[in-house]
Amino acid sequence: MKLMDSVKKEKIHLNQKKINIYLCGPTVYDNAHLGHARSSVCFDLLRRVLIAQGCEVNFVRNYTDIDDKILKKISENGKSIEEFTEFYIQSYEDDMGKLNVLDPNLKPRATHFIQEMIDLISQLDKKGFVYTLEDGLYFDTSKDKDYLSLSNRGLDENISRLSNDIKKKNESDFVLWKFDENFYESKFGKGRPGWHTECVAMIDSIFKDTLDIHAGGIDLFFPHHENESAQCRCGCERSLAKIWLHNGFVKINGEKMSKSLNNSFFIKDALKDFMGEVLRFYLLNSHYRAHFNYSLEDLYAAKKRLDKFYRLKKRLNIDSILDFNTTQNIVFKSDIAQKILEILNDDLNISKALACLDDFINNANLELDKKNKTLKQDIENSLNELAKIFGFGFMGVKEYFQWGVSEDKKAFIENEILKRNEAKKDKDFKKADEIRENLAKEGILLQDTPSGTIWEYENA
């Protein structure tokens, strides 16, 4: 497999015993937004592709559960930091489950690695990279000759998100330990860690050696990942990761999504109108490194495209596929699965892979017209394997095509179908047609089959 690192395309050897991946997770002070969804879905695809080819993947995604934003929020609502962050962690995991994101092997929380962070800062201090100011301990970037080697920025660029009003030696210097009497004991004084130190300490503690892949959103590339890289290089005397992967920004109406711009779109809001599989499919539609422009029109178009997968399932009378988490130790045998894996091995070329999926579905429908029972089983096996690679296609057909309809509404529809059947029995075809037309106006489409009338909800 070849993946685009921050500098060049790098090769991953699929026959190595284990591949370690670390994904920068959310700071848990609010509901998860589409940026979180995009990152999680993109790198979940990477994980699935590796597993499908027999790799043992150790996938870790962290939670930042101590941060200035969190402390500001709890000061406003009076909750404890543990109670507050636990609520948003569970909310985030609920959203990820609806997007069919595989559960990580490990989900470390920053507050569980405070001593490791203190130890890392101590190492940096001993080697002369730390100085103290009134509000905390800082990393002296001028002492790191390779600083900015990851992001390849120049020192004349806007390298700090904060103004230099705290008398730092260099504008690019960043805080390692913030003095705060309300938090943790250390030899430096009571305080709490700086954000850039958290992931380095967790990665070093969990993996013990160089990480294969460090992933995250492009907004983390600088300064977060640059500063992580500097601390590991200077404190641990090694590279933090072999490969750095970054997914593109999510834009809303062509503008970068940002809470500071007040245009963040929560996953929970999107899931009110669309099922999780549709949102996942939509977020996967463009390459992970590309910036993604969210629009309802494109989301509806993605739903229409995913419908074709489910219509093939419906034609094959497949009600469901094995649970989306049952991916490990599955042998992928079908020609189409092997072809798509080969395509995705080239830096997750999702556009070409989904085009190949479209061709497979179209050809499968043509071949099914020949009534070949052996072929039918082959197509069913292929769909099972493709679902596990892409992470969509696991819902029951009825559940998929009737999603978004309340139980009361379903009861009403079934009653209308009974009335229509009675009208047809009485040869009152005008009334039967009227019932069909009235339901169609509400997006309910009836289909008469040899085994009875079934219905679908068309919400676009």
Describe the structure.
The chain is α/β, with parallel strands linked by helices and 460 residues long. Helices cover 45% and strands 16% of the residues. The chain has 15 helices and 15 strands. A four-stranded parallel sheet has the order 4-3-9-10, covered by helices on one side. Strands 5-6-7-8 form a four-stranded antiparallel sheet. α8 (276-284) crosses α9, α9 packs parallel to α11 and α14 (407-425) packs antiparallel against α15 (429-441). 37% of the residues are buried. Keywords: Ligase.
Helix/strand-derived category reads alpha/beta
Number of strands: 15
Rg over CA atoms, rounded to whole Å, is 26 Å
**Overall pLDDT confidence:** 91
The largest sheet has its strands arranged as 4-3-9-10
